[in-house]
Design goal:
With about 300 residues, this protein is of the alpha+beta class. It has two helices and 19 strands.
Length: about 300
């Protein structure tokens, strides 16, 4: 029995030692990972056909290792109501990526360093008036010396370009009705609205979401600006991310585009599903009790 006990203890110690070594190795690997941040997150510019404009963005290495990164462009557009990004779009106006010229395409950045990347946008003489779109990517290059000779995973971050070429273009759109479910089972409290762009240039949709308690006191105000691209419909979700899981609230929503505005005001009860089931059971029980009592 003593021998068995010693054997089990030895196995346990060895297991803990191996787990500790593995955890240490993972921790060391984590510490060597690259981190890349891009600023600004997008650029929205208005330019003339045939013009050139110098621009720049910044790359921050907020990790602990030095690395190389490359910059390049790609088409950019969106698909569906939820605005899924499409970096292979064949739309005629997803062509701004071809207008970008970099000073150079490969850089070396040290840990903790912020680096400025310069580029020029050259708008063709025959560019059609209205919106044109593309994206600039910055992608870290895995350092085999850091990864121990293993194949590393490159990290990529993108900055969309929303360019409008001056001239005779159309701005048009509409706002569908704002919908708010009066009974919601889990946070966040939310409303939905669809915004349609019927023109050939983008515009901004401004949203305001005000949450009040049943006594009229304002609990939170959430404001947001979202871009809506030409010939698309965007499903916008207005939400109170800090909403509790239970309560009765009044929500006031406002959406504005171009010269249009829509507003709504609704009472919202939010509670877990089991609470609604309990309420139904209590109502049915009460109705059953009254029915039986009446028959007697």
């Amino acid at each position: 029995m003593k021998k068995l006990s010693k054997y089990i203890s030895a196995i346990s110690c060895l297991t803990l030692l191996l787990v500790g070594v593995q955890a240490g190795a993972v921790s060391e690997t984590d510490q060597k990972r690259e981190s890349i941040t891009m600023s600004p997150v997008s650029k929205r510019l208005t330019l003339d056909a045939g013009s050139s404009q110098k621009e720049s963005f910044k790359i921050l290495n907020d990790g602990v290792v030095d690395y190389d990164f490359i910059v390049y462009t790609s088409p950019y557009y969106v698909e569906g109501l939820s605005y899924e990004t499409n970096f292979e779009s064949k739309r005629p106006n997803a062509d701004a990526d071809k207008w970008v010229e970099f000073e150079k395409t490969r850089y070396r950045i040290r840990a903790g360093e912020t680096m400025e990347v310069n580029f020029t946008i050259n708008v063709p003489e025959g560019a059609a008036p209205g919106g044109h779109y593309g994206v600039i990517f910055a992608e870290s290059q895995a350092d085999l010396a850091v990864t121990g000779g293993n194949i590393g995973r490159n990290k990529r971050i993108g900055m969309p370009l929303y360019l409008t070429v001056n001239g005779s273009y159309r701005l048009g759109g509409s706002i569908d009705d704002i919908t708010t479910l009066p009974i919601q089972s889990q946070p966040p409290i939310h409303s939905n609205v669809r915004v349609n762009n019927t023109g050939n240039a983008d515009f901004m949709a401004s949203t305001t979401y005000i949450v009040k308690d049943i006594f009229g006191g304002t609990k939170d105000t959430i404001q947001e600006e979202l871009i809506v691209l030409p010939d698309t419909t965007r499903d916008i979700k207005l939400q109170w991310t800090r909403s509790p899981s239970f309560g009765l609230w009044r929500v006031e929503a406002e959406v504005s585009i171009l010269d249009q505005k829509k507003q709504s005001s609704s009472l919202v009860l939010i509670a877990p599903t089991w609470a609604y089931i309990l309420i139904v059971i209590l109502i049915l029980s009460g109705a059953g009790y009254l029915f039986i009592r009446k028959r007697r």
